[in-house]
Write a structure and sequence with these properties.
The protein has 599 residues and is α/β, with parallel strands linked by helices. It contains 26 helices and ten strands. It has four domains: 107 residues, Conserved hypothetical protein from pyrococcus furiosus pfu- 392566-001, ParB domain; 103 residues, no CATH class; 102 residues, no CATH class; 148 residues, no CATH class. The strands form three sheets. Strands 1-5-3-4-2 form a five-stranded mixed β-sheet. A three-stranded mixed β-sheet has the order 8-9-10, covered by helices on one side. It is elongated.
């Protein structure tokens, strides 16, 4: 067609014009067809904005690529289009292109978002300057940058008009690795924005229900408040749109809450929905009461504790004073109920002022139920018993010889421990050695050099060292044969009390009389932290620590039907002071009388 140009309006043939850095990626086919129809009728009326390409005769498009494409399709590469030539750099050229496209509409918000990101990088993160250069308000810039939380597939779907802006704004709050899956579903089902919003709301988590500290959620990209402040479409404020991370934080908070309870209770459990957990409360009275004194004793049992819920609807809730041994609990409840019935009927055989003892339980025809000593206390006790037996064997030379004979006859000579014996040997003869890995001839030579005056005591130490090798059953036999009196050996110290939780310490204090001796001071001490509580328990003036032995440290005497069932034997433990095995206890007579009174 023939065109009339104004003499001052420069033109360039299409083949001299090349594409520039256009923020627009998508050109709608229907809109392009309509533009071509208009250009075929009247030509290109509005000039393209171009700039010289350094070192070539060509010019790059700053604005007008749609007109350039349409004119090339209609008239070919030789068609002369009107142009406005600008001498500008890359930064200004892209800003001009974005402004031109923005005000002409039809440009995708996703395309604008990418262009805004590039401009922001050029401005070293200065949002105010970026918005000024692009002719936008700061709010518009923030909204476009917020869309970059969408996956490439979502942004491409927005650019190609397959989804609406509202879809993209909602998907910006979804986990990146989940967005494409949600996108596929909404494209396949043609899901409206309102329906997508309702569906996403079912997966979001209310921050108000969180059991963890939500301070750090304020600036999180998955906090719905962030989308609510940016976009027209959002779930509103107060939701976490990252369910997996929400659950991770919840689990961490539940475990942290359980950890704080481990100083208080011997048994702390985290309850999951799959466990079918039914709490079994233990109390001094009520429907499942066991009696006040028995309840105090229960606090020292390893089955006493608390539970922290990890179940929906009650996450983080703590249930205290529970029993985790249903059989033991039911029997103690039955004993207490029977004692109450006997008391109500006026039977003087029932003890109405205390929990049923082993004797009253047997009288009532009920099997005695005992508390379970925590494994850590069992291990400590076993190590202490070995020490006590070793010291008693060193203090009783006649019985020492008989024990040595019994060990040999029963095939337990191998229970002699070279390590413990070597410690005793070196205390008496520092230059002597004792190692199971050396030949017998070498030890014979060393033994031959020993002072004859020490031989009797060193032979005693042979039997004493076996205390660290015998089984628990044989250790109990030695304790009874040697008539070991716990009162002469047991020591109250912070190492022993540190084995117990706060509830166990409370039970222990009631058992031995420490609670009564402390009086009104006990409650304040119990309310403090564990180290302070232990210090208070060890500093009660006038209390007879020496000679007072808690039940957990006593060994059962032969014929004691009410004695605590023994736990499996623990591994042999090294002595607290290995040289103790060679030292007699000052207060222990060589031949203690049988039937020593228990404390």
């Amino acid at each position: 067609m023939t065109q009339t140009r104004h003499p001052s309006q420069p033109t360039l043939p299409i083949h001299r014009i090349v594409q520039g850095k256009n923020p627009r990626d998508y050109f709608d086919p229907d809109e392009m067809a309509e533009l071509e129809q208009g250009i075929r009728a009247v030509g290109v009326l509005e000039p393209l904005v171009v700039r010289p390409v350094l070192g070539t005769p060509d010019y790059a498009i700053i604005a007008g690529e749609r007109r350039w494409r349409a004119a090339r399709n209609v008239f070919g590469d030789d068609y002369a289009v009107p142009v406005v030539i600008k001498e500008v750099g890359d930064e200004t050229a892209e800003a001009m292109a974005l402004i031109e496209n923005y005000h002409r509409a039809a440009m995708s918000p996703a395309e604008e978002a990418h262009a805004a990101q590039r401009q922001l990088l050029r401005q070293r993160g200065d949002k105010a300057e970026t918005a000024r250069l692009m002719g936008w308000s700061l709010a518009v810039l923030e909204r476009r940058l917020g869309l970059l939380a969408c996956s490439p597939a979502v942004l491409q779907a927005l650019t190609s008009r397959r989804i609406q802006l509202g879809h993209a704004e909602l998907l910006a709050g979804v986990l990146p690795d989940k967005q494409d899956g949600v996108l596929a579903g909404l494209l396949a089902q043609q899901v409206p924005v309102a329906v997508l919003k309702a569906q996403l709301g079912r997966y979001a988590r209310r921050l108000a229900d969180a059991v963890f500290d939500t301070t750090g959620c304020a600036d999180c990209a998955h906090n719905s408040a962030r989308q609510a402040g940016l976009f027209a479409e959002s779930l509103g404020e107060g939701y976490c749109q990252h369910p997996r991370h929400y659950e991770e934080l919840t689990q961490a908070a539940v475990h942290a809450r359980a950890e704080t309870l481990r100083e208080e209770f011997p048994n702390v459990r985290i309850v999951e929905a799959s466990e079918g957990f039914v709490p079994l409360p233990v109390a001094p009275d009520g429907a499942l009461g066991v009696g006040a004194p028995q309840y105090t004793a229960c606090q020292g049992c390893q089955s006493f504790g608390s539970a922290v819920s990890a179940m929906a609807g009650s996450v983080g809730e703590v249930t205290r004073s529970l029993c985790f041994d249903a059989a033991c609990h039911s029997q103690k409840v039955a004993v207490w109920r029977k004692a109450q019935r006997r008391s109500a009927s006026g039977d003087r055989a029932a003890d109405t002022a205390s929990a049923p003892t082993a004797r009253s339980a047997r009288a009532a025809g009920t099997r005695t139920v005992t508390n379970q000593t925590p494994p850590r206390v069992v291990a400590y006790r076993l190590a202490a018993w070995r020490q006590w037996v070793a010291r008693a064997l060193m203090a009783q030379p006649v019985r020492n010889q008989r024990v040595l004979i019994a060990l040999a006859c029963s095939g337990h000579a191998g229970d002699v421990r070279a390590t413990e014996y070597g410690q005793a040997l070196r205390k008496t003869a520092p230059d002597a050695g004792c190692s199971a890995g050396r030949e017998l001839a070498a030890h014979l030579e060393e033994a031959d050099r020993l002072d004859a005056a020490h031989l009797e005591r060193l032979v005693q130490a042979v039997a004493a060292s076996a205390a660290f090798g015998v089984s628990e059953r044989d250790l109990l036999a030695l304790l009874q044969y040697l008539e070991v009196d716990e009162r002469r050996y047991f020591q109250w110290d912070d190492k022993f009390l540190a084995l117990f939780t706060m509830s166990e310490l409370e039970s222990l204090a009631a058992e031995v009389g420490l609670r009564q001796a402390m009086g009104v001071r006990f409650k304040a001490a119990r309310a403090g932290r564990k180290p302070a509580f232990i210090a208070a328990l060890l500093g009660v003036g006038g209390f007879a620590y020496q000679g007072t032995v808690p039940a957990a440290m006593r060994y059962p005497r032969a014929g004691d039907a009410a004695s605590e069932p023994r736990e499996p034997d623990a591994a042999p433990s090294d002595a607290k002071d290995a040289t103790d095995s060679a030292e007699p206890a000052d207060a222990v007579p060589d031949t203690p009388r049988r039937g020593a009174v228990e404390s």
